[in-house]
Amino acid sequence: MKSNNLNPLTKKHQVISILSALSNCNQGIVGNTEKELQDHLCTQVTSALNNDIIKAYIGDWDIVWGPCTKNSKQIGKNLKIEFVTDNAMFVAKGQDPDDKTKTLYVISISGTNLISKFGWLDEDFKVETKFMKSWKTIPNAKIAGGSYDGVKILKNLKNDKNQNIISFLNQLPLDQNTEVATCGHSLAGTLSPLLALKIIEWKEKEHKSFLVSTYPSAGASSGNKAFVEYAESKFGNHYHSVINNYDIVPHAWNSKTLLQIPDIYNTAPFGFLTISEKVKKALEYSEKNCLKNSEYTRIFDGKSQEYRFYGEPEVAATFIREAGFQHIDAYNSPKAFHYDDGVANAVNVYLGH
What we know:
By secondary structure, this protein is of the alpha/beta class. The chain has one domain (11-250, 297-350): Rossmann fold. Helices cover 36% and strands 20% of the residues. The protein has twelve helices and ten strands. It has helices spanning 11-22, 34-49, 52-58, 117-124, 145-156, 165-170, 187-205, 225-235, 255-258, 277-290, 319-327, 343-350, and strands spanning 30-31, 62-75, 81-96, 99-109, 133-134, 142-143, 178-185, 211-217, 241-244, 306-309. Strands 1, 2, 3, 4, 7 and 8 form a six-stranded mixed sheet that branches. The longest helix has 19 residues, at 187-205. The radius of gyration is 19 Å and the shape is globular. The model is unreliable at 1-7 (pLDDT under 50).
């Protein structure tokens, strides 16, 4: 299996990344009712887990909680009220691909829905220093206001038995041969470690012995230095992120990497793509004013817990198109998860790609 010199990818990482992707099956979908969205997600995920190509690659997985959605109203055509999914999550149970003696529960969290205003305006971009919230268990530790809102939503989602994620886990026979892993891409690459930390804090309070891990990809930094030091102390070697160095999202919101964004594709392989001076100045203004003293820091930045790669250029016509390719499509490339032939294509059918 191909890998870089940091955190070599395992079969387990590949399987979890596919389960992660399936939480996004409501991407771009509009429903007449919230139930319609819930049913659509459930149908798509269930069908994908039974797809011959996908099942042959990831093995047998059962949905044991959810899928659950948090949706928003919007005014559609002819002033009709419609619903879009802001957040989605489900739990799948299976065997650990790297250790057949271990039971694995994967908590799959959806990323930003491109048609969700709440996802964009709150969870993604409510990051100004003045909106940061305290991580109550640790002095001086703070996270982005949007991340705070997002993880609160995830904690409050309930299945048809009125169980949130903690109450669901509480009734399981969790022991030393059990692992609970959170995962997600993009926005969920930011939120999945936060939910894992909440589970760790609950686990320690209840003196439970199961393992908690997290597998985020393409996420932005969510907290300040004090928060990151706390997170790293809790995760240890059970933090497994995947980052494309050409993806602009992981460059946010650390002040040093944020200001690298305007020049990230301004090289010959990318066709010297640039952004407008207006956007460049907006980034500079945000770093100097809106994010002042925020101290946003990546969890395990550049350490062995991160798998980093360089996506192949799409040589897109615009900066934005290239950014979109590097944030989504590049993670399905041979440089990232190295799926067997046909697996990524099979998954993308359920995501509407």
